[in-house]
């Protein structure tokens, strides 16, 4: 643990119990990095549109491209990024690849964010 420093002039007292509690609840660096990467992926409007589409139905690249009015190449590029981050998964059926959300956690995260931005 780092020593406590008082660089802000908000108060002259460090609340040791609170600081200790927060430090004990701190995430490990790998979890911090992985979570930040998920939010970064969700920070791109194109990927948000893809996630929204896949929250409705499993889809192939050509259907996604048509639904989102994008090229198959652009959609494929985004799908590759989302797959590498375990946000979506691929199912092969013969020569076709179908994409869907990786699990319910991604759907919950997406729906919670959507609810937040549409809540008035």
TrEMBL record:
Keyword Glycosyltransferase set for record: no
Limits of the HTH arsR-type domain: 27-120
Pfam assignment, any one: HTH_5
GO MF term (any one): DNA binding
GO terms of biological process kind: response to cadmium ion
Alphabetical list of InterPro entries matching this protein: ArsR-like_HTH, ArsR_HTH, HTH_ArsR_DNA-bd_dom, Metal_resp_trans_reg, WH-like_DNA-bd_sf, WH_DNA-bd_sf
NCBIfam families: HTH_metalloreg (NF033788)
UniProt protein name: ArsR family transcriptional regulator
UniProt source species: Tumebacillus permanentifrigoris
Lineage: Bacteria, Bacillati, Bacillota, Bacilli, Bacillales
């Amino acid at each position: 643990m780092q020593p406590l420093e008082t660089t802000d002039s908000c108060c002259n007292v460090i609340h040791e119990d609170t600081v200790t509690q927060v430090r004990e609840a701190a995430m490990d660096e790998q979890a911090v990095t992985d979570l930040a990467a998920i939010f970064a992926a969700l920070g791109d409007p194109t990927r948000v549109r893809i996630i929204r589409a896949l929250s409705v139905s499993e889809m192939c690249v050509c259907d996604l491209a048509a639904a989102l009015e994008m090229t198959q190449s652009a959609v494929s590029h985004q799908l590759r990024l989302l797959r590498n981050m375990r946000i979506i998964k691929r199912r092969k059926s013969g020569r076709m690849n179908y994409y869907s959300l990786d699990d319910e956690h991604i759907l919950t995260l997406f729906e919670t964010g959507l609810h937040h931005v549409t809540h008035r």
